[in-house]
Amino acid sequence: MDVFSGLFGVAYLIPLLMVASFVVVGLAGKRLPRLEWGGWVAVGFAGAAMVLGVLIGAGEMLHPGTWTNVQYTWFHLPGNGTGPTPNGVRLVVGTLVDPISALLLVVVTVVGFLVLLYSIGYMHHDRGLPRYYAELSLFLAAMTGVVLANNLLEFFVFWELVGVCSYFLIGFYYEKPSAASAAKEAFLVTRVGDVMFLLGIFLYFSAFATQGPAGTGGWAASGFVFAHGSTPFLAGASANSTTLTVAGIMILGGAAGKSAQFPLHVWLPDAMEGPTTVSALIHAATMVAAGVYLLAVTSVFIGFTSFDDLLIVAIGGFTAFYAATMAVVHPDIKRVIAYSTISQLGYMVLAVGAGFAMVGLFHLFTHAFFKALLFLAAGSVIHAVGTQDLFKMGGLRKPMRLTATAFAIGGLALAGIPPFAGFWSKDDILSAVYSQLGAHPAYWPFFLLAFAGVFLTAYYIFRAWFLAFSGDHPRDPTLPHAHEGPWVMQVPLVVLSAFAVGAGLFVFWPSFQGLLFHGLGAAGIPPTYGVTDLTLSAASVALAGAGILLAWRLWGNGRVFVLAESSPAQPIRRLLLNRYYFKAGYDWVGARGLYTVARAADFFDRYVIDGTVHGFERAFAYTSDRMRRIQSGVVSDYAAYVIAGLVAVFLLLLVVAPYLVARLGGT
Amino acid sequence: MTSLPLVGFLALSGALLAVGVFGILTRRNFILLLIAIEIAMNATILNFVYFGAFSPSPAVTLMGQSIAVVLIGFAATEVAVGLAIVLALNRVRRSINVAEANELRL
Fold it and tell me: A73, A213, B1, B73: most buried, per Cβ within 10 A?
């Protein structure tokens, strides 16, 4: 054991560092003499977190397959020896450093640090800088918390925290109505998934409470803790499989919400209302990948039933293609990349569903770098020309050589051209899924969709590149003269470019392979590079090359391809531009359906519940007001009441009582 | 004496009571009100005397007359208190109209 493994036990320092950064920047940021200083403080904390994260990653590579679980019992409800939970329920908080979390930790801290550094240049003009840095610090704390969580409940808590940070940061320009509404949309859509996730946790608890998976001492006693070992719980548990199928669907729902998978994908393109840096960190590299991570962790520690696996493959494969089609026509540089994110997350989900969780996570790893690179390069462009409309840009290659190169490298990585990062991980996914086709013929259509997505991916990202960078001059002459950003913006581009080139080659590095192998037995094995895989790779590279060629043919050298109004493809283009009317449909459901229900509930609350309460109140007020008038204070009135009472008593005794006696008998 | 029927006497006290109640309900002048109360009360006192007198038992006769005397005393006391209130009211408000004295205090 050396210094690295000692670090595994103090992994909790990483989230704590970022919480400290959140507190310091949040409280003191506005009081510092210059607003950027708060940014540098956050960058410093993030740098320390990155050093720790990378050291932990390195330690995990040097000691393959080490598990370090540090936990603390939050509270323990003792059991009475009987019932479904004889040992009671123990809820723990803790950190688990294992190959998977080490991999993710490196991604989150490195990309987080680079984005924070870049933000100093990108956001320098913004008055809300301390708020921005405080929120991003909190986000990084929560995200590292998600990665390190050693049980599902703790996972869920941090998961919600990243959700709320995402909400804050999408709505960073809250005075813009579109940003405020995008933030709300993201929050509400992911909420649907989050509720499903929580239900999934409950279902797993109920399924495993009586009989824990072999060798774990039971979930009831251990409180959802992820146990050591490579055998998924499901393999050893004879729990009710209907419950587990439903629980798996619920977990998938949670992951789909966070990772913007069909049909909960609508929020991610709108989340581009936030600053580009936020899009790079949260809505491309880390938070949206949390859904994939959740699926991977669940498949590693619990396992999915075969129906769930098919559903996951279906959603992943379909989303990979479906989102790519929308990216093909969009004029907004950030939204093109956002659709691309949804599509790439679809590939990861596909891999997890096919039973290759680590392959999916490998793609997550490479994707984080090249997608963050694409966003930061797009951020440079937006920073320089002040618009996101691709059709106004053009010819930016000359004034922004570094950015153009970085975007091209990101694009090549995304398109899957060897030797760039995306090629290795995406090809692993395709060949991994292909290897399952024999056993699961139902995967065929989704494999083909994902395969077709390769062509679209290459086409849309290079369409964006050609539109922005090729040609001689901007199509909109009013654009300001473009220039590169300051060094804080250039350094992250260079570093991320290096990763976008080289991260995929890590797979040939034995120590890194160790991470993937030891993540989880068989599911971590990257496909071997046999003849079939090489054929597949050749086919997918050819497809990607064809996509790039088509993009060049239509958009290269400053050309603008205009689809004729009479073209039969126009309805398709409109369908794509309108996002298959999904958003409109959800808005309709929200505005008509839910709003009607809300109105009815409001009516019920206002007039039935409140009405009853207020009705009583008014009845009493009215009665007492009337009764009060009797108390006139005039003696003769009181005398009259006394006499009226007397008369009433006499009438009762002399008329009513004898009548009743006569009617009813008796004495 | 005994030849007269009891019902005639009772009719007399009933009439007196009616006059008194009418006065109580309609008069606004405090003194007239007191007088009306007095009339109504005397109807009661008379009843004690009649029932005593019509009883075959001399003891009951005596008791009825004794209670009548005590009640006359009560009535006098009540009028004395009533008149004291009238005087105080008149001194404070320069009026003995009961409708105006509706605050249950001076």
Answer: A213
Q: Which residues of B touch A (CB under 8 A)?
A: 21, 24-28, 33, 98-99, 101-104
* Chain B interface includes A636 (CB < 8 A): yes
- pLDDT for the residue B2: 55
Statement: residue B77 has pLDDT above 90: yes
Tens-digit pLDDT profile for residues A589-634 = 877 888 889 899 999 998 899 999 999 999 999 999 998 888 887 7
The residues, any chain, with a CB within 8 Å of residue A265's CB and separated by 6 or more, are A256, A319, A323, A342, A582
- What is the distance in angstroms between the Cα of B1 and the nearest Cα belonging to chain A? 31
CA dist A492 and A369 (Å) reads: 10
pLDDT over 90 at B14, yes or no: yes
| CATH number belonging to the domain at B6-99, selected among 3.90.1310.10, 1.10.287.3510, 3.65.10.10, 3.40.50.1460 | 1.10.287.3510
Contact A633 B104 (CB under 8 A): yes
Q: Kindly state the tokens that stand for A294.
A: 């959740």
Q: How many CB pairs under 8 A join A and B?
A: 25
Alpha helices in A63-151 (DSSP H): 99-122, 129-148
> Testing the interface with A: which of B17, B22, B24 to mutate, by most A Cβ within 10 A?
B24
- One-letter amino acid for residue A452 of the chain: A
A543 Cβ neighbours under 8 A, 6+ residues apart? A451, A452, A454, A455, A458
d(C-alpha B56, C-alpha B59), whole Å: 9
Q: How remote is the C-alpha of A103 from its chain's centroid?
A: 18
Reported as a pLDDT band with limits 50, 70 and 90, residue B17 is very high
Q: What is the pLDDT of residue A238?
A: 47
Amino acid A86: pLDDT: 61
> A622 is written with which tokens?
């009215």
The list of chain A residues with pLDDT below 70 reads: 1, 79-90, 208-240, 517-532, 666-667
For residues A26 and A57, what is the distance between their CA atoms, to the nearest angstrom? 29
Query: Which residue type is seen at A597?
Result: V
> ipTM of this complex > 0.85?
no
Taking an 8 Å cut-off on Cβ atoms, the answer to whether B98 and A636 are in contact is: yes
Query: Identity (one letter) of the amino acid at A4?
Result: F
Predicted local distance difference test score (pLDDT) of residue A667 = 59
- Partnered with residue A631 across adjacent β-strands are none
The ranges assigned to domains in chain B are 6-99
pLDDT digits (tens, 9 = 90+) for A549-569: 888 888 877 777 777 777 787
Q: In chain B, how many H helices and how many E strands?
A: 3, 0
Q: Is A71 helix (H, G, I), strand (E, B) or coil?
A: strand
Please say whether the beta carbons of A473 and A435 come within 8 A. Answer: no
Total-model pTM: 0.76
| Residue A218: strand, helix, or coil | coil
